[in-house]
Amino acid sequence: MIAFLEGEVVDKRGDRVVLAVGGIGYEIQVAASTLARLPAVGRTFRVFTRLQVRDDAMVLYGFASVAEREIFDLLVTVNGVGPRLAQAFLSVLSPEAVRRAVAGGDVAALATVPGVGKKMAGRVAMELKDRLGEGDPVPVGPISEVREALLALGLGPQEASEAVARVIHDQDRPVEELLREALMTVSR
Question: What is the pTM of this model?
Answer without folding.
Answer: 0.69
